[in-house]
Amino acid sequence: MKFSYVMLPDYPLEESLASIRLADELGFHAVYAADETWHKDMWLLFAAAARETSRVRLGPSLSSVVLREPTLIAQALATLDELSGGRAEGVLSSGNFGLLAQYGIDWTRQKPLSRTKEALHVIRTLLDEGTITYDGEFFTYDGLFTFARPVQERLPLKLGAMRGPKSFEAAGELSDGCHHALSYTREAYDYAVEHLRIGAERAGKDWRSLDIGAWVVFATGPDSAKAKEAARSMAGIYASSMPEEQLRRNGVEPAELKPVIDAIAAGDLARGIELTSPETAEKLSVAGTPEECLEKIRRDIEPSGVNHMICAVTDRSLVRAFTGRDLPGAADVETQLRLIHEEIMPAWGR
Protein backbone atom coordinates (compact mmCIF):
# COMPACT_ATOMS: atom_id res chain seq x y z
CA MET A 1 0.00 0.00 0.00
CA LYS A 2 1.40 3.37 -1.06
CA PHE A 3 0.41 6.58 0.73
CA SER A 4 0.14 9.98 -0.91
CA TYR A 5 -0.95 13.44 0.18
CA VAL A 6 -3.38 15.31 -2.06
CA MET A 7 -3.57 19.00 -1.24
CA LEU A 8 -5.88 21.80 -2.11
CA PRO A 9 -3.36 24.58 -2.78
CA ASP A 10 -5.18 27.18 -0.73
CA TYR A 11 -2.59 27.70 2.01
CA PRO A 12 0.11 30.40 1.92
CA LEU A 13 2.55 29.08 -0.65
CA GLU A 14 5.45 28.75 1.80
CA GLU A 15 3.24 26.52 3.97
CA SER A 16 2.33 24.37 0.98
CA LEU A 17 5.99 24.04 0.02
CA ALA A 18 6.86 23.07 3.60
CA SER A 19 4.18 20.34 3.53
CA ILE A 20 5.52 18.98 0.24
CA ARG A 21 9.07 18.93 1.63
CA LEU A 22 7.82 17.06 4.70
CA ALA A 23 5.97 14.49 2.58
CA ASP A 24 9.20 13.98 0.65
CA GLU A 25 11.23 13.50 3.85
CA LEU A 26 8.68 11.07 5.31
CA GLY A 27 8.63 8.81 2.26
CA PHE A 28 5.16 9.51 0.87
CA HIS A 29 4.74 8.18 -2.66
CA ALA A 30 3.39 11.41 -4.15
CA VAL A 31 1.91 14.82 -3.53
CA TYR A 32 -1.01 15.61 -5.81
CA ALA A 33 -3.15 18.71 -6.15
CA ALA A 34 -6.38 19.70 -7.84
CA ASP A 35 -5.82 21.54 -11.12
CA GLU A 36 -8.80 23.87 -10.67
CA THR A 37 -9.31 27.62 -10.94
CA TRP A 38 -10.67 27.74 -7.39
CA HIS A 39 -7.18 27.14 -5.98
CA LYS A 40 -3.69 28.53 -6.44
CA ASP A 41 -1.94 27.23 -9.54
CA MET A 42 -0.61 23.74 -8.81
CA TRP A 43 1.77 23.69 -11.79
CA LEU A 44 3.70 26.72 -10.54
CA LEU A 45 3.65 25.36 -6.98
CA PHE A 46 5.00 21.96 -8.07
CA ALA A 47 7.64 23.57 -10.29
CA ALA A 48 8.97 25.30 -7.18
CA ALA A 49 8.62 22.11 -5.12
CA ALA A 50 10.50 20.02 -7.70
CA ARG A 51 13.79 21.73 -6.82
CA GLU A 52 13.17 21.38 -3.05
CA THR A 53 12.43 17.65 -3.05
CA SER A 54 14.23 14.50 -4.18
CA ARG A 55 11.90 11.47 -3.98
CA VAL A 56 8.24 12.37 -3.85
CA ARG A 57 6.28 12.27 -7.10
CA LEU A 58 4.27 15.31 -8.21
CA GLY A 59 1.29 15.97 -10.43
CA PRO A 60 -2.38 16.76 -10.81
CA SER A 61 -5.11 14.62 -9.37
CA LEU A 62 -6.82 15.62 -11.38
CA SER A 63 -6.56 17.85 -14.44
CA SER A 64 -9.65 18.62 -16.53
CA VAL A 65 -9.43 17.89 -20.25
CA VAL A 66 -12.39 20.21 -20.80
CA LEU A 67 -10.85 23.32 -19.25
CA ARG A 68 -7.21 22.56 -20.12
CA GLU A 69 -6.30 21.60 -23.68
CA PRO A 70 -4.69 18.12 -23.64
CA THR A 71 -1.50 19.11 -25.45
CA LEU A 72 -0.94 21.80 -22.82
CA ILE A 73 -1.34 19.17 -20.09
CA ALA A 74 1.28 17.05 -21.88
CA GLN A 75 3.60 20.06 -22.19
CA ALA A 76 3.23 20.90 -18.47
CA LEU A 77 3.75 17.28 -17.38
CA ALA A 78 6.87 16.89 -19.48
CA THR A 79 8.29 20.16 -18.17
CA LEU A 80 7.55 19.17 -14.57
CA ASP A 81 9.14 15.78 -15.23
CA GLU A 82 12.38 17.44 -16.35
CA LEU A 83 12.37 19.82 -13.40
CA SER A 84 11.84 16.96 -10.94
CA GLY A 85 14.26 14.51 -12.50
CA GLY A 86 11.54 12.11 -13.63
CA ARG A 87 8.96 12.32 -10.84
CA ALA A 88 5.87 13.67 -12.62
CA GLU A 89 2.61 11.82 -13.21
CA GLY A 90 -0.91 12.88 -14.10
CA VAL A 91 -4.52 11.98 -13.43
CA LEU A 92 -7.07 13.08 -16.03
CA SER A 93 -10.82 13.52 -16.14
CA SER A 94 -13.50 15.71 -17.63
CA GLY A 95 -13.24 17.70 -14.39
CA ASN A 96 -15.37 19.04 -11.58
CA PHE A 97 -18.90 19.52 -12.91
CA GLY A 98 -19.55 22.34 -10.43
CA LEU A 99 -16.55 24.25 -11.75
CA LEU A 100 -17.61 23.62 -15.35
CA ALA A 101 -21.02 25.08 -14.53
CA GLN A 102 -19.35 28.29 -13.34
CA TYR A 103 -17.75 28.53 -16.78
CA GLY A 104 -21.17 28.15 -18.36
CA ILE A 105 -20.32 24.67 -19.61
CA ASP A 106 -23.02 21.99 -19.52
CA TRP A 107 -21.06 18.82 -18.79
CA THR A 108 -23.89 16.64 -20.16
CA ARG A 109 -23.14 18.05 -23.62
CA GLN A 110 -19.41 17.33 -23.38
CA LYS A 111 -19.53 13.52 -23.78
CA PRO A 112 -17.23 13.43 -20.75
CA LEU A 113 -15.92 9.87 -21.01
CA SER A 114 -15.41 9.96 -24.79
CA ARG A 115 -13.61 13.30 -24.49
CA THR A 116 -11.41 12.01 -21.66
CA LYS A 117 -10.45 8.85 -23.56
CA GLU A 118 -9.53 10.88 -26.63
CA ALA A 119 -7.55 13.36 -24.52
CA LEU A 120 -5.68 10.47 -22.88
CA HIS A 121 -4.64 9.25 -26.33
CA VAL A 122 -3.48 12.76 -27.30
CA ILE A 123 -1.42 13.26 -24.12
CA ARG A 124 0.08 9.76 -24.26
CA THR A 125 1.08 10.25 -27.90
CA LEU A 126 2.65 13.68 -27.40
CA LEU A 127 4.55 12.52 -24.29
CA ASP A 128 5.87 9.39 -25.99
CA GLU A 129 6.59 10.74 -29.47
CA GLY A 130 6.93 14.52 -29.12
CA THR A 131 4.66 15.06 -32.09
CA ILE A 132 1.09 14.32 -33.10
CA THR A 133 -1.08 14.29 -36.18
CA TYR A 134 -4.62 13.41 -35.26
CA ASP A 135 -8.17 14.10 -36.40
CA GLY A 136 -10.62 13.15 -33.67
CA GLU A 137 -14.10 14.00 -32.52
CA PHE A 138 -12.87 16.60 -30.02
CA PHE A 139 -9.24 17.38 -30.88
CA THR A 140 -7.40 17.86 -34.19
CA TYR A 141 -3.66 18.37 -34.82
CA ASP A 142 -1.53 18.47 -37.94
CA GLY A 143 2.13 17.85 -37.24
CA LEU A 144 2.04 19.53 -33.82
CA PHE A 145 5.34 19.07 -31.96
CA THR A 146 6.92 20.08 -28.66
CA PHE A 147 10.44 20.33 -27.24
CA ALA A 148 9.02 19.55 -23.79
CA ARG A 149 10.16 15.97 -23.26
CA PRO A 150 9.74 13.79 -20.15
CA VAL A 151 12.73 12.24 -18.42
CA GLN A 152 10.92 9.03 -17.54
CA GLU A 153 10.69 6.36 -20.21
CA ARG A 154 6.95 6.25 -19.58
CA LEU A 155 5.35 9.04 -17.60
CA PRO A 156 2.34 7.50 -15.78
CA LEU A 157 -1.10 8.69 -16.85
CA LYS A 158 -4.20 7.62 -14.93
CA LEU A 159 -7.89 8.41 -15.06
CA GLY A 160 -10.06 9.80 -12.32
CA ALA A 161 -13.42 8.04 -11.99
CA MET A 162 -16.42 8.13 -9.67
CA ARG A 163 -19.62 6.84 -11.24
CA GLY A 164 -18.64 3.85 -13.36
CA PRO A 165 -18.79 1.26 -14.74
CA LYS A 166 -17.50 2.47 -18.13
CA SER A 167 -15.08 4.99 -16.63
CA PHE A 168 -13.48 2.32 -14.44
CA GLU A 169 -13.21 -0.06 -17.38
CA ALA A 170 -11.63 2.66 -19.52
CA ALA A 171 -9.07 3.37 -16.80
CA GLY A 172 -8.16 -0.31 -16.58
CA GLU A 173 -7.97 -0.78 -20.33
CA LEU A 174 -6.34 2.43 -21.53
CA SER A 175 -4.35 3.99 -18.69
CA ASP A 176 -1.89 3.18 -15.92
CA GLY A 177 -4.52 3.17 -13.18
CA CYS A 178 -7.40 4.94 -11.55
CA HIS A 179 -7.86 7.41 -8.72
CA HIS A 180 -11.36 6.71 -7.42
CA ALA A 181 -12.50 9.70 -5.39
CA LEU A 182 -14.81 9.85 -2.40
CA SER A 183 -15.65 6.23 -1.67
CA TYR A 184 -15.37 4.58 1.71
CA THR A 185 -17.09 1.19 1.72
CA ARG A 186 -16.09 -2.31 0.68
CA GLU A 187 -19.06 -2.38 -1.69
CA ALA A 188 -17.93 0.78 -3.49
CA TYR A 189 -14.34 -0.43 -3.94
CA ASP A 190 -15.33 -3.96 -4.93
CA TYR A 191 -17.47 -2.38 -7.66
CA ALA A 192 -14.67 -0.10 -8.88
CA VAL A 193 -11.97 -2.77 -8.83
CA GLU A 194 -14.16 -5.35 -10.57
CA HIS A 195 -14.67 -2.99 -13.50
CA LEU A 196 -11.01 -1.96 -13.51
CA ARG A 197 -10.20 -5.68 -13.78
CA ILE A 198 -12.61 -6.10 -16.70
CA GLY A 199 -10.94 -3.22 -18.56
CA ALA A 200 -7.42 -4.43 -17.80
CA GLU A 201 -8.18 -7.96 -18.97
CA ARG A 202 -9.69 -6.57 -22.17
CA ALA A 203 -6.27 -5.05 -22.88
CA GLY A 204 -4.35 -8.18 -21.80
CA LYS A 205 -3.02 -6.52 -18.64
CA ASP A 206 -2.76 -7.81 -15.08
CA TRP A 207 -5.15 -5.57 -13.12
CA ARG A 208 -2.91 -5.85 -10.05
CA SER A 209 -0.19 -3.94 -11.92
CA LEU A 210 -2.41 -0.86 -12.04
CA ASP A 211 -2.21 2.05 -9.63
CA ILE A 212 -5.56 1.64 -7.85
CA GLY A 213 -6.00 4.72 -5.70
CA ALA A 214 -8.55 5.59 -3.03
CA TRP A 215 -8.85 9.41 -2.98
CA VAL A 216 -10.49 10.10 0.39
CA VAL A 217 -11.42 12.97 2.68
CA PHE A 218 -9.03 12.35 5.55
CA ALA A 219 -8.54 13.82 9.01
CA THR A 220 -6.64 12.36 11.93
CA GLY A 221 -5.20 13.43 15.24
CA PRO A 222 -4.93 12.39 18.88
CA ASP A 223 -8.45 13.72 19.53
CA SER A 224 -10.92 11.57 17.59
CA ALA A 225 -13.86 13.96 17.98
CA LYS A 226 -11.92 16.96 16.66
CA ALA A 227 -10.65 15.00 13.66
CA LYS A 228 -14.15 13.82 12.82
CA GLU A 229 -15.52 17.34 13.16
CA ALA A 230 -12.86 18.57 10.71
CA ALA A 231 -13.94 15.87 8.26
CA ARG A 232 -17.62 16.74 8.78
CA SER A 233 -16.88 20.33 7.83
CA MET A 234 -15.73 19.19 4.39
CA ALA A 235 -17.63 15.93 3.78
CA GLY A 236 -20.82 17.61 2.59
CA ILE A 237 -18.92 19.93 0.26
CA TYR A 238 -17.22 16.97 -1.40
CA ALA A 239 -20.36 14.81 -1.35
CA SER A 240 -22.21 17.42 -3.39
CA SER A 241 -20.17 16.23 -6.39
CA MET A 242 -20.91 12.52 -5.89
CA PRO A 243 -23.28 10.80 -8.34
CA GLU A 244 -26.36 9.21 -6.81
CA GLU A 245 -25.14 5.71 -7.65
CA GLN A 246 -21.92 6.35 -5.78
CA LEU A 247 -23.72 7.74 -2.74
CA ARG A 248 -25.78 4.56 -2.54
CA ARG A 249 -22.67 2.38 -2.81
CA ASN A 250 -21.40 4.28 0.21
CA GLY A 251 -24.53 3.70 2.25
CA VAL A 252 -26.03 7.17 1.81
CA GLU A 253 -29.43 7.75 0.25
CA PRO A 254 -29.36 10.79 -2.10
CA ALA A 255 -32.59 12.14 -0.59
CA GLU A 256 -30.89 12.20 2.80
CA LEU A 257 -28.15 14.45 1.44
CA LYS A 258 -30.33 16.69 -0.75
CA PRO A 259 -30.81 19.47 1.85
CA VAL A 260 -27.03 19.57 2.33
CA ILE A 261 -26.39 19.76 -1.42
CA ASP A 262 -29.07 22.43 -1.89
CA ALA A 263 -27.58 24.59 0.87
CA ILE A 264 -24.06 24.29 -0.54
CA ALA A 265 -25.29 25.01 -4.09
CA ALA A 266 -26.90 28.18 -2.75
CA GLY A 267 -23.59 29.24 -1.23
CA ASP A 268 -24.65 28.65 2.38
CA LEU A 269 -21.73 26.47 3.47
CA ALA A 270 -22.46 26.97 7.15
CA ARG A 271 -25.98 25.60 6.70
CA GLY A 272 -24.64 22.73 4.61
CA ILE A 273 -22.24 21.74 7.38
CA GLU A 274 -24.96 22.07 10.00
CA LEU A 275 -27.17 19.70 8.00
CA THR A 276 -24.40 17.13 7.52
CA SER A 277 -24.98 14.68 10.34
CA PRO A 278 -21.99 13.13 12.13
CA GLU A 279 -23.25 9.73 10.96
CA THR A 280 -23.24 10.79 7.31
CA ALA A 281 -19.84 12.46 7.67
CA GLU A 282 -18.40 9.28 9.15
CA LYS A 283 -19.67 7.32 6.14
CA LEU A 284 -18.08 9.82 3.76
CA SER A 285 -14.61 10.22 5.26
CA VAL A 286 -11.69 8.42 6.85
CA ALA A 287 -11.40 10.27 10.14
CA GLY A 288 -10.54 9.83 13.80
CA THR A 289 -7.44 8.70 15.65
CA PRO A 290 -4.71 7.02 13.59
CA GLU A 291 -5.93 3.68 14.98
CA GLU A 292 -9.48 4.36 13.77
CA CYS A 293 -8.27 5.45 10.33
CA LEU A 294 -6.06 2.37 10.02
CA GLU A 295 -8.95 0.10 10.97
CA LYS A 296 -11.23 1.61 8.32
CA ILE A 297 -8.58 1.31 5.60
CA ARG A 298 -7.86 -2.33 6.47
CA ARG A 299 -11.52 -3.29 6.87
CA ASP A 300 -13.27 -1.41 4.04
CA ILE A 301 -10.71 -0.31 1.43
CA GLU A 302 -7.65 -2.55 1.20
CA PRO A 303 -9.45 -5.95 0.81
CA SER A 304 -10.88 -4.95 -2.59
CA GLY A 305 -7.40 -4.63 -4.13
CA VAL A 306 -6.75 -0.91 -3.59
CA ASN A 307 -2.98 -0.40 -3.40
CA HIS A 308 -2.74 3.37 -2.95
CA MET A 309 -4.25 5.62 -0.28
CA ILE A 310 -4.52 9.22 -1.46
CA CYS A 311 -5.29 11.31 1.60
CA ALA A 312 -7.02 14.67 1.13
CA VAL A 313 -5.81 15.89 4.51
CA THR A 314 -8.32 18.22 6.13
CA ASP A 315 -7.12 20.50 8.90
CA ARG A 316 -8.11 23.62 10.81
CA SER A 317 -6.67 26.02 8.22
CA LEU A 318 -8.42 24.35 5.28
CA VAL A 319 -11.77 24.27 7.06
CA ARG A 320 -11.40 27.94 7.96
CA ALA A 321 -10.48 28.89 4.39
CA PHE A 322 -13.45 27.04 2.90
CA THR A 323 -16.13 27.63 5.52
CA GLY A 324 -15.01 30.36 7.91
CA ARG A 325 -15.35 27.88 10.80
CA ASP A 326 -12.57 27.65 13.36
CA LEU A 327 -11.79 24.28 14.92
CA PRO A 328 -9.32 24.79 17.78
CA GLY A 329 -7.43 21.63 18.59
CA ALA A 330 -7.76 20.02 15.16
CA ALA A 331 -4.38 18.69 14.02
CA ASP A 332 -2.56 20.66 11.34
CA VAL A 333 -1.27 19.17 8.08
CA GLU A 334 2.26 18.61 9.38
CA THR A 335 1.00 16.73 12.43
CA GLN A 336 -1.31 14.59 10.32
CA LEU A 337 1.41 13.71 7.80
CA ARG A 338 3.67 12.65 10.67
CA LEU A 339 0.90 10.57 12.24
CA ILE A 340 0.22 8.81 8.92
CA HIS A 341 3.95 8.09 8.63
CA GLU A 342 4.45 6.97 12.21
CA GLU A 343 1.21 5.14 13.01
CA ILE A 344 -0.49 4.07 9.77
CA MET A 345 2.13 3.43 7.09
CA PRO A 346 4.12 0.94 9.26
CA ALA A 347 1.17 -1.48 9.03
CA TRP A 348 2.37 -2.10 5.45
CA GLY A 349 6.04 -2.10 6.29
CA ARG A 350 6.64 1.47 5.20
Number of helices: 15
The average pLDDT value, as a whole number, equals: 95
Q: State the shape.
A: globular
Strand content: 15-25%
What is the CA-based Rg, rounded?
A: 19 Å
Q: Going across the major beta sheet, what is the strand order?
A: 1-2-3-4-7-8-9-11
Helix content: 40-55%
SSE succession: EHEHEHEHHEEEHEHEHHHHHEHEHH
Distance between the termini: 9 Å
Based on secondary structure, the structural category is alpha/beta
Ranges where pLDDT stays below 50 over 5 or more residues in a row are none
Largest sheet descriptor: 8 strands, parallel, barrel
- How many beta-strand elements? 11
Commentary on this structure:
This protein has 350 residues and is of the alpha/beta class. It contains 15 helices and 11 strands. Strands 1-2-3-4-7-8-9-11 form an 8-stranded parallel beta barrel, surrounded by 9 helices. β2, α2 and β3 form a beta-alpha-beta unit.
Descriptors for this entry?
350 residues; alpha/beta; 8-stranded parallel beta barrel; two-stranded antiparallel ribbon; 18% strand; globular
